Amino acid sequence: MEINSGATAWVLISAALVLFMTPGLALFYGGMVRSKNVLGMLMQNVFAMGLISVLWAVVGFSLAFGGGNRWIGNFDLAFLRDVVGDVGKAAQIPGYGDTLVIPAMAFVAFQMMFAVITPALITGATADRLKFGSYVLFIGLWSVLVYSVVARWVFSPNGWLFRRGALDFAGGAAIHVNAGIGALAIAMVIGPRRGWMKEPMPPHNLPFTVIGTGILWFGWFGFNAGSALGADGIAAQALVNTNLAAATAMLAWLLVERLVSGHATTLGACSGAVAGLVAITPCAGFVGGMSPIIIGGLAGAICFLCLKLKQLLRVDDSLDVLAVHLIGGLFGSIALGFFADKSATGVGADGVFFGGGADLLVDQLVAVGAVMLFSFVVSYLIAFAIERTIGLRVDEESELVGLDQSQHAETAYQS
Amino acid sequence: MKLITAIVKPFKLDDVKDALKTAGVTGITVSEARGFGRQGGHTETYRGTEYKIDFVPKARIEAVVDDHLVDSVIDTIRTSAATGKIGDGKIWVTNVERIVRIRTGEEGPDAV
Fold first, then answer.
1. Rounded Cα distance, B52 and B41, in Å
2. Residue-range domains of chain B with CATH
């Protein structure tokens, strides 16, 4: 296909929007930790922009989108060699045939930003106690051994889940379920923060969290609508769906929160919006009408009610990656099996509610099941291996003085 | 010379300051403080989990005054800081052995 300049412009802008989500996530999480750990949290997120960008170019992209088989790509496109092919022609990425209308490097850039933010999502589960060096090792290994593989399965047209017929528009399974279950695994290995459930650990700066939420919501338009890989009706529908789901999830979260715990809170509004954004991610270009409103509303309520899960599991998932990303991503991926509507955008399939029968639903369940199983096991093994060698968590004194001083020799707020 | 220290609710600080000025106090020092008394702390709810916050924000006011002003200053603070609800704070008085104005070197009541 010829390069379409409108599509190319939109995907390049979307890549920038998605990159911006990572510092947004840094603020979203950074506001929720105690003030002695805020730089540690910001640093972990920002650092992903450095390390993962490079890893993606060196090997990650090739393992996800290169030649190879349905389980994993090969090293054909490692170091981004031979990716561009015919200069001036649209991308020829294995599996896509001649369907892409953007240059190969636009595709590489857009996917790179997804690779960057996915491991960063995990930092919320290990807040306030993960050694920086161990973090570096963990996300480096995780990005190559878990993310690239799952991206292969789900995103690449050569991947086995994609070929089965499982749908994931922008990464409900590949990103949120994947990072969410990985977060659970490392949180189980590292153990709880000192004082968890005994002393209060309230957020130190919720205005940061509000700003972060705004950046995430804004960037998510690139994340979801950019995943159309074109500037067309699919992208526009995805953008509207994204906004509506975030909006209704915020409302639903606040309503349930008000009923259950007495107040509609600022943190609740932010958490609800993000839960809705997560849930609509797999569905964004495959649903229409009022479906995003229903999906968002249910996601907001369900994710709020799942906040208690970590206490049942006795895992200190400090900033609720489990409830927001794993449950939100799971719910969205499964909901797509019901709400998918091919008439909305002309792509995808029909779900249970739109005359498609249960085929898609089964594929969705297989997809999230496979991603959870694989990601949990490999994430756990990586975390376990690091714990047994260099150790995952900081020593007691470092944890008490905080990550800012102990890991980075800095203080966020000079008074 | 006496040092009067008062812990009051932060939002009453302006009222207390205005009242003290009117009562003839020439200077006060104010700082932000946190603590608990009989009021205890308060609760905050984050993502459905209730936290007990032990330390409540308070304002600490310090003024050095001449002995004969002590009773009226205490009354002034009491009247202007009171809301009638628990957590209104405390006032205490301590002896000041010596006071010096840095600029001039004056001592005693002249230095206040």
1. 7
2. 2-100 (3.30.70.120)
Q: In what order do the strands lie in the sheet with B56-65?
A: B29-35, B56-65, B2-8, B89-95
Are B47 and A271 inside 8 Å of each other by CB? yes
**Is any Cβ of chain A less than 8 angstroms from the Cβ of B51?**
yes
Beta bridge partners of B56: B35
Contact B47 A260 (CB under 8 A): no
CA distances from A72 to A53, A76, A117, A176 (A): 20, 12, 21, 20
Complex-level ipTM beyond the 0.85 threshold: no
Residue A139 lies in a domain: yes
Tell me, what CATH number does A236's domain have? 1.10.3430.10
CB contact at 8 A, A354 and A202: no
Record the tokens describing residue A295, joined without a space.
């999906």
**CA distances from residue A112 to A58, A290, A327, B50, B103 in whole angstroms, order as listed:** 11, 32, 24, 39, 65
Q: B47 vs A262: CB contact, 8 Å cut-off?
A: no
Q: Which residue range forms the structural domain that includes residue A355? A: 5-406
Name the nearest CA neighbour of A232 among A2, A12, A10. Answer: A10
Domain count, chain A: 1
Residue A411 placed within a domain: no
Task: Count CB atoms within 10 A of the CB of residue B91.
Answer: 16
The position carrying tokens 């649903």 is: A287
A positions 200-229 inside 8 Å of B (CB): 200-203
pTM of the model: 0.91
Q: Do A265 and B45 touch (CB under 8 A)?
A: yes
CB contacts of B45 in chain A (<8 Å) are: 261-263, 265
Domain-embedded: residue A350? yes
**Residue in A with minimal Cα distance to B43:** A200
Kindly state whether residue A272 falls inside one of the protein's structural domains.
Answer: yes
B55 touches chain A (CB under 8 A): no
Q: Which amino acid is at A8?
A: T
DSSP 3-state of B25: coil
Report whether A139 contacts A48 (CB < 8 A): yes
Tens-digit pLDDT string for chain A (415 aa): 899 999 999 999 999 999 999 999 999 999 999 999 999 999 999 999 999 999 999 999 999 999 999 999 999 999 999 999 888 899 999 999 999 999 999 999 999 999 999 999 999 999 999 999 999 999 999 999 999 999 999 999 999 999 999 999 999 999 999 999 999 999 999 999 999 998 889 999 999 999 999 999 999 999 999 999 999 999 999 999 999 999 999 999 999 999 999 999 999 999 999 999 999 999 999 999 999 999 999 999 999 999 999 999 999 999 999 999 999 999 999 999 999 999 999 999 999 999 999 999 999 999 999 999 999 999 999 999 999 999 999 999 999 999 999 999 999 998 6
Q: What residues are paired with A89 via a beta bridge?
A: A2
A275 SS3 class: helix
Give the burial string for A117-154 (b: 16+ CB within 10 Å, else e): bbbbbbbbbbbbbbbbebbebbbbbbbbbbbbbbbbbb
